[in-house]
Amino acid sequence: MPGHPIATGRYPGGQPRDGDLVAMPGRARYLVLAGATASAGSSLAAAPLSRILWLLGGLVCAAPMLARMARQRAAIAPAWRLVGAGLAVRLASDLACMIEDLTHQGDVPLPSWDDEVGYLLSYALLAAGLIGAAGGRARTALLDASIVAAGVAIIDWMALVHPFLHHHAIGQLALGHALMYPICDLVLFAAAVRVLFTGAVRNRANLLVLAAVGLLLAANTISFAHAAHGGHRSVALLDNALWLCSYIAFGLAGLHPRLFGERHAEPDEPRGAVSTRRILLFGAATLLGPTATVIRLARAHGALAPGEWRHLVVPAILTGLLSVLLVARLGGLARLAQRRLAELDEHGRRLSVALLERESLEHQLRHGALHDPVTGLANRALLTQRMEWALARPDARHRHALLLLDVDRFTDVNDAHGIGFGDEALIALAYRLRTLAAPGDTLARIGGDEFALFVEHGTGDPAQAREQAEQLAELLRAEVKAPLKVGGRVVHLSCSIGLVHIDGHDPREAMADAELALRAAKRGGRDRVSRYKAELRIAREAFTRISAGLRHAVERGELAVHYQPVVELPSGRVVAVEALLRWTPASGPVPPDEFIPVAEETGLILPIGAWVLERACRDARACRDARAWYERHGTSVTVNVSVRQLAEPGFADEVLAVLECTGLPADALVLEITESVFAGDADALPVALDRLRGHGIRIAIDDFGTGYSSLSYLHQLPVDILKIDRSFVPAEPGGDHSFTLAVLQLGSSRSLPAIAEGIETAEQAELLHALGCRLAQGYHFAKPGPAAQVEAAFARLNPAPAG
């Protein structure tokens, strides 16, 4: 019901989304109710009351929007504040229009001040606000909105403007004034569509503002159509109701929980892209011009009155403009496609580079997982794979061989020159070994200084293949022994090699057999090749069985200490006893020469040796209230000590603690060690032995003459007793006794008593006595036995003192 004589517009480009009104506060219901009441009252009442009720309803409905702008002005974007200002100016124009209409009693002069100033200013403010609300980056949205507006402009001309010009004869000034409103509506429509195509509509309050603008344009369109074609009162009531609904939408935007003007997201489509809905809209806009022209011609039945063709010029111009806009839009899409194609090409290039880098990295990872990082040789995993592939071929395993090579005492190289030099030595050694391996063989580093060579002999004769593998093993050993130049130094190395001719399918069994052969080469003195034999596996199984049994032998009570007397040859008296360990599991007794080496190698000799020492001291001492062997007969107890025990830092403390616990005097204990222990570190042992000797404990060298004995050792080491090995004890009077005599004379010169072991006959005892040996032990005097049997030997050989 605004007072300007002509207003034109269009239907809104979209309706509010579902749920917008449901989410509004409860006050919105009263706002809608007020608007509906005002609309009903204005339609039923007579003028001028209807005009007053309508304007009051509009003011009430738009009041929340204006009030919110006043309260939250700083929080609202400037562009949206222009939209609110446009609303306020329009309401003021409606009020001025009503006053002029009442003043002139319906005969309002044209143009009036509210038309020229009020409504046109409101259009300018609304359009400027919507243009600013879309943002400066929405150039694509502007082009799209122009396309849609051009299509609508054709409809406006054909359906509204042209009929208006055809039926109304008015002056040039009034005509220009009348056409100003449809042009403003078209600009406002384009600005609203542009905002609709941007992310501003993600805010429901913004969408309500756009809906209000759409209702305003729809009311203007109906009003213009009414003025162009004439109409009934129902048409006037409809545009009045739509104007009032526009104010209601503005008011709902003011009541919305969110503040209108906020931008929360960008459009769904990438910048410059076109959605399916927008494409359909473009298509519809493009067809509007030709469709309207065809309809116009159809109405004229193919014949136009003179001068009518000039009325088709404007649709033609608009259609041409629409085509130009569409071409520009398509050009933009083409440029976008080219950029995307260039981006895809660049992405593809980067992806190709990334794939190549990934492939290279995967290759490096695979190589690192299957190769030794120091020498570059295969590692154990790759060696196992190659063996599995080769052994999986039928009848091929009998022609293959596996060699395990361990560098002897390579830790000495690392200790002398550092680990870095040791790695360089391994690299140089690996290069040498690689020159001896055939192209089909696999050379691997499987440990710190341990290498493996898997030899494949194809389809040759198995016997010939075995011979070639053994020759290759000797070549490898000789190659390692050759002087190795590393940097500015020359290193001399040797190696032990275990060789196995593969007869099975399992690489793990072959590796285990080769390790047994390598261990045999090390035990044999190193720097040699040892071939796998079935006896090695049998011995290893026995080793495993014995070590498993020894772990629980003490707690099961399977260990016992037997004693063998040491006799003074001139008098026949027992002057000492040697403690000898015996093991009798449930399966039967195990000889000491079988389980003692196992205990040494596994380290079980440490707890077992500690148990033997304490047991022997307790048996020798008996108890504190009874007369022990030492107190009754002056005898001492000799306990064998292993290399592993002597290497323990707290060994001396452990021995002294046992003596204190059992109460055995220190001079009643003799620790018996083999002379081979001095070969490893002859300088470190005297410290511990000197400390024990300082407390009165004596040290005996067992099996003297069989290993590393020399005058220098006897001079350097704290030794109290020599024990002559049974292999040097004369068996009969007519034999060669020079070595035995030399040992006895050596001991006498150093004031070291000598004990001859393994005396079996009286003749041997007499001969040793004649050579000057005073002490002996053996089966001739007594066999080893438990403590009770030793008591019997004391009773027989050491008569009780008189009195």
UniProtKB/TrEMBL annotation:
Keywords: Membrane, Transmembrane, Transmembrane helix. The keyword Membrane applies. The chain crosses the membrane at residues 117-134, 141-159, 179-197, 209-229, 279-297, 309-330. Gene3D superfamilies: 3.30.70.270, EAL domain. SUPFAM superfamilies: EAL domain-like, Nucleotide cyclase. Residues 398-534 form the GGDEF domain. Coiled coil: none annotated. The keyword Glycosyltransferase does not apply. Pfam families: EAL (PF00563), GGDEF (PF00990). Residues 543-798 form the EAL domain. InterPro entries: Biofilm_reg_signaling, EAL_dom, EAL_sf, GGDEF_dom, Nucleotide_cyclase, Rev_trsase/Diguanyl_cyclase. It comes from the Bacteria. This is Diguanylate cyclase/phosphodiesterase. It comes from Dactylosporangium salmoneum.
